[in-house]
């Protein structure tokens, strides 16, 4: 049996919006959305004041404004977010070399080796959160557990500005108590399918045998089987290379008109580009994914001589790929855009920054 790891998941609280509120006192206490207020705009991030109205990231701006008429939109400053993210990364590297960034605002740490002799993973997480607050003026939530899956769930448990520790003997019980929609990798479509199968909680999922999961969830079956039992053997991988990043949307009704498809693709491009910026990714290959009403799925890709530099160019190339498939053979139920060929990110972005002095 493998020795138990000590894993911390650090997740900044409403990162983009919190940076904006930190830098502009007039925004503090107000519902803030980072993104564009234009008709086809999308929310990249929302403050907790905005979230109380149901405003969420990747939501169309028009929907967000209907839910919260007092919402203040702020144009994103990704250069600032990256600089703050590097500052936070430097803090994390003081405690371990095993830091795996997931995006600008979250990361895993393996602190099984107590480098600074703080006595426990809980104490390490508490000190990291205190340093982030002192050095950046921002709050972070932390989950501490024996694997990545539960640490990530735990970091969301007491948000914002919270700390949650799940020791090994409490892991399966903790997982069993949660709705499966909280599980990493279970998106809205999978959650709806589970609902139809009577799977609502981790306990429901644990009651399913592996053969049943393989029948209904195919390649995800092994992951779901282990997750329902609080098991996850994935190690923390420092500077894990990002292979692709993008977004896709399944529509409530199948689309066929060119104008409807163009509008839908624009929203997908907005969501995908927000994630691309969030990861600081640069790549040359754009892939369009299209799923027809009969669930037949096709992809089309285009590789440019140099990396995409703007949302406009990204969206235009996506539309060019989709236009070649119009008029569609039948209604379209899903569209997706993915950026890959990410090896061209600037070398500086791939190198961890030097630790800050204590």
Description:
The chain has helices at residues 15-23, 48-51, 61-67, 78-93, 121-136, 148-155, 171-177, 188-196, 202-206, 210-217, 221-227, 258-279, 311-323, 347-350, and strands at 7-12, 32-35, 43-46, 72-74, 99-103, 106-110, 140-145, 163-165, 244-255, 285-292, 297-303, 332-340. The chain contains 14 helices and 12 strands. Strand 7 (140-145), helix 6 and strand 8 form a beta-alpha-beta unit. The model is unreliable at 344-358 (pLDDT under 50). The protein is α+β, with helices and mostly antiparallel strands and 358 residues long. Helices cover 38% and strands 20% of the residues. Helix 4 (78-93) packs antiparallel against helix 5 (121-136) and helix 12 (258-279) packs antiparallel against helix 13 (311-323). It is globular and about 65 Å long. It has a 5-stranded mixed β-sheet. Strands 9-12-10-11 form a 4-stranded antiparallel β-sheet.
User: Beta-strand percentage?
Assistant: 15-25%
Main pleated sheet: 5 strands, mixed
Tell me the quaternary state.
Answer: single chain
Rg from C-alpha positions? 21 Å
Topology order in helix (H) and strand (E) letters = EHEEHHEHEEHEHEHHHHHEHEEHEH
Helix count, DSSP H or I runs of 4 or more residues:
14
Separation, N- and C-terminal Cα atoms:
37 Å
Mean pLDDT: 91
Instruction: Tally the beta strands.
Output: 12
Low-confidence stretches: 344-358
- Strand order within the widest sheet? 5-6-1-7-8
Structural class estimated from helices and strands: alpha+beta
What is the 3D shape?
Answer: globular
* Approximate helicity band: 25-40%
């Amino acid at each position: 049996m493998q020795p138990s790891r000590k894993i911390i998941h650090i997740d900044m609280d409403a990162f983009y919006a919190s940076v904006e509120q930190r830098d502009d006192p007039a925004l503090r206490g107000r519902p803030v959305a980072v993104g564009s207020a234009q008709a086809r705009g999308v929310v990249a991030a929302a403050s907790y004041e905005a979230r109380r109205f149901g405003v969420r990231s990747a939501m169309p701006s028009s929907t967000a404004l209907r839910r919260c008429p007092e919402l203040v939109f702020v144009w994103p400053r990704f250069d600032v977010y990256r600089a703050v993210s590097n500052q936070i990364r430097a803090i994390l590297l003081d405690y371990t070399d095993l830091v795996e960034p997931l995006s600008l605002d979250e990361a895993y740490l393996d602190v099984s080796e107590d480098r600074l002799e703080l006595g426990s993973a809980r104490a390490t997480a508490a000190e990291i959160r205190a340093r982030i607050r002192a050095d950046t003026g921002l709050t972070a939530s932390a989950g501490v557990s024996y694997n990545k899956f539960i640490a990530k769930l735990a970091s969301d448990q007491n948000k914002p500005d919270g700390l949650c520790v799940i020791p090994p003997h409490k892991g399966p019980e903790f997982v069993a108590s949660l709705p499966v929609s909280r599980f990493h990798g279970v998106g809205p479509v999978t959650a709806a399918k589970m609902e139809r199968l009577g799977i609502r909680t981790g306990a429901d999922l644990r009651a399913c045998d592996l053969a049943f999961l393989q029948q209904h969830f195919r390649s995800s079956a092994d992951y779901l089987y282990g997750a329902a039992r609080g098991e996850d053997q994935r190690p923390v991988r420092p500077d894990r290379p990002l292979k692709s990043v993008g977004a896709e949307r399944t529509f409530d009704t199948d689309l066929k008109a060119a104008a409807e498809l163009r509008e839908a693709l624009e929203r997908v491009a907005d969501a995908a580009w927000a994630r691309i910026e969030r990861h600081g990714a640069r790549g040359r290959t754009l892939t369009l994914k299209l799923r027809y009403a009969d669930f037949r799925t096709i992809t089309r890709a285009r590789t440019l001589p140099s990396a995409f530099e703007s949302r406009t160019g990204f969206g235009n190339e996506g539309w060019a790929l989709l236009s070649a498939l119009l008029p569609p053979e039948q209604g379209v139920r899903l569209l997706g855009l993915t950026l890959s060929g990410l090896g061209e990110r600037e070398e500086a972005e791939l190198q961890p920054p030097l630790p800050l002095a204590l």
